[in-house]
Each structure stands twice: as structure tokens, then as C-alpha cells.
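Why does residue order matter? Because the sequence determines the fold. Keep that principle in mind as you read this record.
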Amino acid sequence: MNPLGDVLARRIRAHGPLTVADFMAEALGHPEYGYYTTRDPLGRAGDFTTAPEISQVFGELIGLWCADLWSRMGRPDPIVLAELGPGRGTLMRDALRAARLVPEFLAAARLYLVETSPVLRRAQAKTLRDHKPAWHETIATLPPGPLLVIANEFFDALPIRQFVKTEAGWREKLVGLSAETDDLAFALSPGITPAVALVPAALRDAPPGSVAEIGAASLSVMDGLAERLVAAGGAALVIDYGYLGPTCGETLQAVRRHQRHDPLESPGSADLTAHVDFTALAEAAHQAGAWSWGPVPQGAFLQALGIAARLERLLRQAGPGQAADLGIAVRRLIDPAEMGTLFKVLCIAAPGLPPPAGFPEARPGVITRRPTEPR
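Structure:
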């Protein structure tokens, strides 16, 4: 067992099994051994690759989307431009480069990065040194004023709780210790716990063996973000892989060196994520008084923003090898068989905000669609 595994095992022996959410929080954010505390996870040399690292076009279009929405908002000056979990700063670097087409927006924008990883903060400082970013631990401490937020692959890394339907009813999935090996092992709560109330009513009659994932941490973050938007104005763009809930299915996964990994093996050495319930996020925002648009598939969103035209312009300036790479990268972003459908885009905004670019809905509303099959 690795050092963090030893820490968790001692905690379990002293206080009992952990919820999956508690385990994820420690594995990702432990101050000494946590995954994001100790490494830069991105790129070929890391564990996974995100859309901004695949193609510069992704960040460029997001930057132009922000400048356009700022104009639709009435061009407030100053405006808080914030990114949640900015990785190496690649998305924001490309976004701000493209936003030079609207110099008034750049002059009004004040850049803030919500990041807890000291390793990634150093990378962001290097990438964005010309833009004078300031860092915050949470959304709650961002300065007052109208707000534009980008959250790309942020919510999928927030802790979830898992519940399993048994013949005796719903039981919470926990992380304990194996009686045979004393290693970390999944187990079910022996009886009904108050947390079972988190399972949506629509799933209560699911058949035995069903798994429900509840992103309580995500809903808390969205509640605080939506309250801020309602009070001060602005919008948040959420881009992530996920589904329209509620529905059953287990999506918790660990990734290490671009391969699936046992979530309990060597905690802190692999990324842990779960698919995002976009319906739940939108409903949480509505309960706080905000409006929502989408979600729409990432491929459709990027095409609506003009990714084909941007690619064509880049191809005119590229050599044969570069052209092939550019085409492959853009196809990866928009192809339904790649990231185009699994990844979705949701906009949360203050009431009264004009419809944002990239969303076909003329009017905001809560999501009422339901998936036709389990995820």
C-alpha cells in the first residue's frame, strides 16, 4: 500500500469506512499525497489530455464566445473573468489571444483562476504571465462584480457518492478494508443510512444491482455559483462529459498514463472522475434563481461558433503535416464517435441575460428530457 493508502487505512481503522466522496476528496486533494497536489497530469507524458491541449481552436472559440457575451451583457467594465480548474492555463491563453479582436473586452477583463494545485498554479503563472492572473481557492472568494466563468472538465473531478440497489433496498457504497488482505476495498453499508435520501425519487424503484451516483459537491458548487450570478450578473459556461439524468449507471473511473486503473490501487496516483449529471446542475441553478441554456453536444456547440471556418483559415497557413494534424484534432473535438457527443455544454446565467451564442434555444429553461437508455 502506498503512503496515502496507509493514511486512509489508519483513518478507516479508527473511524470506520469512508464514503466514495470522502475517498475521492482525499485521493485527489490530500495536501501531501493527493493527485492534483503532487503533479501536472496533462499531456502525453501525463495521464489524460483535455480539449484545450488537443487544439488551439477550442480555446480561441471560447474566448470569442466570452467577448461576444460580454457585449450582449452591455459591456460591463470591469468584469471578472474566471476559470475553474484551469489546467496549465492553455485554454485561457488561447481564449485571450483570440479576444484581442475585441480589445475593449480585454481592457475590461480581470483574470482570476480558481485552482488548488500548487503544481498547476506554477504552470498557469508561466503560461499566463502576460495577463497578470490572480488565484483563488474557491468561487466564494472571487471579487465582486459581473462575472464570466469557464469550467472545462471541472465538475467531473468533484467527489460523488454512490448507492447500490440491493434486494433489501438502497445501500451506500463505501471504501473499507478487505478482511483477507487488509487492502482498500469497496463494501456496502450494512443497513439504510440517512444519505439514501439523496437517491432521486425517479430512481427509487430501480432493479437490484442498479447504481446511482449523486454529485452533492457539484450541486453545492453550482448553487453558490448561480447565487453569485443572480446577485451580480454574468454567466458560466460548463463543458464536460456527462448525461441527462436522473438515470442509473456507474461511471466512476480512474485513469493513469491514459489507461483505465483500479480506483483503489495506489490512491493519489491516478485521476478520479465521474460523468456529470447536467440535468441536476441545471436544476440546482434554477433553484438558486438562475437561467440555463442547453446542454448541447460539444460538437454542435463548436460548429455553431464557427470551428469549420477557423480550421479552414488555419489550413491555408499550414504545411502538409500541420494540416493533417489540425484536421485530426478538430475532428476529435466534434466527431460524435470522439468527444462531439459525450461532451456537452451548458450555460448558466443571471435572469434577463440575452441568449448566448452556440445555443439554439431562444428561451432559457430547465432540462426536461430524459435519456432513453442507461448510461
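Confidence is low (pLDDT under 50) at residues 367-375.
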